[in-house]
Amino acid sequence: MPGFLVARMEFREGRVFEAAIADLLAEPSDCIVNAANGGLSHGGGVAAQISDAAGPELDEECYRIVRKQGRIPVGEAVVTTAGELPFKGVIHAVGPRMGDGQEERKLVETMHSAFLRAHERGWRSISFPAVSSGLFHVPPALCARAYVVAVREFFEKFPDSTVKTMRLVLYKGPLVDAVKAEMVRAW
Hints:
Layout: E1 4-10, E2 16-21, E3 31-36, H1 45-54, H2 56-69, E4 77-80, E5 89-94, H3 103-120, E6 125-128, H4 140-157, E7 165-170, H5 174-186
Parallel strand pairs: 2-7, 3-5, 3-6, 6-7
Antiparallel strand pairs: 1-2, 4-5
Helix pairs in contact: 3-4, 4-5
C-alpha cells in the first residue's frame, strides 16, 4: 500500500483497518469516500480535489441526486461515478459539523453509512479521508474515536461483508497522533 503507515488493526476473517499518511486519489482501493456537505457541492479541500480529478461527470451526477432527493442529511452517504478516477465509485458521506450536537455518534453513523454503500456494491476495499475534521471543525480526538468505533462496529455487524480493507487516509497534522493513539488504545 502506498504512503506511510500510521497504525493497523486486524480483525477476524482477514479484515484490516489501516491509517496512513497518503494521497487519497492514489489509493489502490475499489472506492474512496468524499467528505461531503449535504448539497454535494465540492468547493474546497479534499472534495474539490476529488471533483477536479474526476471531471464533470461526478459533479453532474451529484447535482442530479440533490435535485431528485434534496440535500443529503447528516449521517447519510450516496454513491456516484468516479468519473476519470480509477475507482469503481465515490461515496459521498455527510458528516456532522461541530456544534450540531452528538457529533461523535453522528460521525460513527456517517462512516457506517459509507461502509454500507461499499458493502451493498460488493466492493472489497474502501479508503476514506478525515470526515468532519477539516472545515467542519470536529476535534481530532473525537474524530479518531468515531473512526475506530465505526470500523469495529461495521466488521462486527457484517462479518460476511465483501469489504475486507478500510484505510483512513490522512495529511500530516494533529489528527495523525490522535488516530494512532486511539487505534493503539482500542487494540
